[in-house]
Amino acid sequence: MRTFEIILLVVVTVLPFVKRKMLLQFRSHYILIFLGVLFLLHLLVEGARWQMFPAYFLLLIVGWRIKAVDISQPPRLNFLRVSGYFIFSLLAILAWVLPMVLPVFDLPEPRGSYEVGSKIIHVKTDRPEEITEKPDDNREFLCKIWYPSNTDTDDLKGESYLDPSGRAGFATKYGLPATALNYLEHVKTFVYPDIPVAVGSFPVLLFSHGYGSKATGYYALLTELASQGYIIVNMNHTYESLGASFPDGSQKFFDYDYQQKISEWNAELMDPMRKAFKDDITYEKRHQIAAPAIRNYFEKDIQARWANDMKSVLNLLEEWNAKGAFANRLNLNKIGAFGHSVGGGAIGRLAIQDPRIKAAANLDGIQWGEMIDTTYQIPYLYISADWPADHEDINSHVYINKSTDYFYETKLLNSGHPNFMDIPFMVPVSALAGTGNIDPYVGLEIVTKLVGAFFDQHLLEADQVNTQSVGEQFDLLEMKIYKGDSIK
């Protein structure tokens, strides 16, 4: 919560219980003036938001009671007074809980030497859109580019946190009205739209989001990496992210009907594999049972579609590097890719298929499809959340062959699946957000340093950077390093 929010909540919570003592010291109008000034400071400095409405209502009640109380008469304990204090207490609890559960949070300030700019690019392809039933509908999607800049941003205002469609899609997912996330306007970002790209040639990273999540819900991670000198193409996979706002004003949201349609038949694949993880059998026997599900589970088709989206972007990079805002700014010999959840699996698929990807990282995604039968030829980083012991470790079968190059198998201890996103900042209650008990700022610091060191070492070939040193720096990071068939 913000400073004046906390002060306001403390005042409206405590004042009813000490108002008589206060009125013995100060005239009522002085106290009312104080309350009014406090409220105005909150509005002017921080701005109103709906999570504070119970606090505003309590402020009115407190003001009314201060004006109405007669301190010459001793307080009488009766049913109405007891009921009033009970209702007041319930309102006070609500007034504290709402802004704590949905705070105006602070994003980590990027540590790199560059400011960070952003630009939206609309990509149209000639591939038929698989998700809609319109015969003439071709696949199109948005990319948000995060890039380094040397612009002086002291007098500039950062962009709004999440675009309108991303907010609306997130609200719909959790059964909230579209306006429920308007308070995110108060979140300070360190990203500035359309400022000039820094002079130089920068490595390119493709980033793929989680299934049914916000494509731009990774501000902490992407801002940090862009500030370190990477140009990041943040994919927004249409109909499978929560929302996208296109240049013509149209919005396209997650297609829940399509999700249900493609996932209905998979129990026959998944049930034997889940049973194999519960049974006390050898790894080799479980591998034989798990392999058909890994090869054929419906998410492999999602990951294939997303990999094709990224291939479309790879095919455009030369054009972007020849003209426009990114002319001569893209180092096309230094292209990497990383993603989260289903996006992490899609990145893994792309890394098998496209030799333009020189290094890749999967942030807690299961990789379905062909990887179980092949081997990476490039450096690869896999970061897992700290799943409970009864969680099926499917990637232990997927990544059986690992890589002919470096393969990093890591785990972020005390973390949950959303700890790679901004979710721990948006909803800082682990039971609601599904996050672990790791401090969210510490968790993101570890992830950004690990991913940054990995790409610095294996994409930029920076001699002074060692990915292994990040594992040695943090007790909350487990790391195993493989090189070819050997463990290092």
TrEMBL record:
Membrane-spanning intervals of the chain: 29-45, 51-67, 79-102
Keyword entries, A-Z: Hydrolase, Lipid degradation, Lipid metabolism, Membrane, Transmembrane, Transmembrane helix
One GO process term, biological-process aspect? lipid catabolic process
Pfam entry (one): PAF-AH_p_II
SUPFAM superfamilies from the UniProt entry: alpha/beta-Hydrolases
Keyword Ribonucleoprotein on this protein? no
Q: Which InterPro entries match?
A: AB_hydrolase_fold
Which is an annotated GO molecular function term of this record?
1-alkyl-2-acetylglycerophosphocholine esterase activity
What protein am I looking at? Predicted dienelactone hydrolase
Q: Which organism is it from?
A: Marivirga sericea
Top-down, what is the taxonomic lineage of the species of origin? Answer: Bacteria, Pseudomonadati, Bacteroidota, Cytophagia, Cytophagales
